[in-house]
Amino acid sequence: MMMIINVKKQFFWTKIQKNLFVLLAVLAFAACSKKEPLQIASFQTLTGWGYTISNDNKILIKQSIIPVISEVKSFESEEDALKVANLVAEKLSQNISPSVTKNDLILLKIKL
InterPro entries recorded for this chain (predicted)? Predict the structure, then answer.
């Protein structure tokens, strides 16, 4: 019986730590985005394109692969990379989580 309690406690603290990390990350990005507009840029990878999001000449996000898909591959075009970069920058400026979903990629018509 004691072991079950410890497992539940460990799960509870792990979940809190994950939620706290996400909250702190969002707050940090939100604080940065209020100072000046975020800058986005594309860059070429060995197999395609990626993007960066910067604030005050400091890179906040460097994404060289398409997020949330099971494959590890870059964006096929610069346009696709910049579409996702704009979405993430917009989410940051609205103080919401900058995570990208598969549905977001579909709505942006990103080639997977």
Answer: DUF4907
